[in-house]
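User: My instructor asked us to take a sequence, write out its structure as tokens, and then describe one feature of it. I'm not sure where to start. Here is the sequence I was given:
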Amino acid sequence: MSSFLPIEALAPQLALAAGVVAALLAGMLKERPRGLLRAVAVSALLAAALLAGASLPSAHPPLLRLDRIGLCWQELFCLGALPLAVLMEEDEIPVALLFGSVLGMGLLAAAGSFLTLFLGLELMSLPAYLLVSRGRREEEAREAGLKYFFAGSTAGALFLLGMTLYYAASRSLALAPASGPLAQAGLALMGAAALFKIGAVPLHFWLPDAYEAADPEVAGFLSTSMKAAGVLLLMRLAELAPSSALARVLPAFGVMTMLAGAFLALRQQRLQRLLAYSSISHAGFMILGVGAWAAQGATGAGAAAVYYYLIAYLFMSNGAFAFLKTSGLSTRAQLRGYAQREPRLAALLAALLLSLGGVPPTAGFLAKLLILWETVRCGLYGAALAGALAALVSLGYYLALIRDAYFEPAAGQPPPAALRRHSSGERLVLLACAIPSALLGFFPWLAGGLAGVLSGL
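Assistant: Let's start with the prediction itself. The structure tokens for your sequence are:
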């Protein structure tokens, strides 16, 4: 049994499972110390990230396979969930749901077969539906959670159908190359499931409602860790056949997604919905990066541009949603004149928005530059031009938000939620996200270091 499911290969997942048990036990205490659940959440996520970082690549057929990409992505999932662990309510149920979702992502990253991929996909998704449904605006949250559930169920059904076709072609559930029309069709259907999870156009219809109705900190988790899991699933499928039809159409999906998200975000007045469409545009860059990675042979080192983009986006997006949580603002009208009331928070917001827009020398600029450079290297000049156009369009709303905060007069009284006292945890998360977003662009050599780590050098 130990060779079938080795303990050492599942150490990060076991740490998260222990966190679920600890959170539920803490919830049974009659007099629970304040901050205990938050400490449990942060400790378990950090432990899982450290265990993933300390693990070595290995293969444990038939279900598990640990490689550099999977281990690095497991660390990314845990770090992307930390802001939610700090900002979420002191309740054992959402803490356990968070652990369950990240555990599923880790299982997906360690998958050595399509069966494990599917189990990881479903395990990470089911808790996410409930996290969205538990939003503070109960009626909207339940409706959005239901829409998210049906979209996720569709993705799961597509993956199962694609897995069936691929099995018919290969006679195996192992993540191994297969040829023939059945295998191509199977990859296409499973790829559609991954694009659903990422929020790619035209499979994005569920995302704006889910992100807007969820609590801001939950939306930040969905836009970072959940998106990173969808990107990894797409990479696992593309590396099976880098020259398949699925891999070849990824740049087109990336272009459609980044342009549609950027243009649709221009007309949004609700801040959380604007960031939702912004996340769709950023997903387009991620998909374009995966397409360029596959076109260049799907090597470990080639994944560095995608991984760096996800790291930068982890800070930028979590920080932007954390600002909404901290400030209590919900519309652009409420943002007007905000810098006069809260100059420090406004400065942190400006740093995050400049990075999201790709203004040099922020982390967002270097992330987009790396993706576009990889796109040019594989000869996709039209896609690179479209990416530059999407980045330019996105400045129309990111800079407009900075203008609203700094140069527009305040419109009436601020909402009651904006007048509450900010907690130390909220300020800490904002600082921890804004500073790397502003400064990571000064260290371009990090991309080379990531290439070495992902290739095992």
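For the description part of your assignment, you could build on this observation: The chain has a mean pLDDT of 89. Try explaining in your own words what that tells you about the chain.
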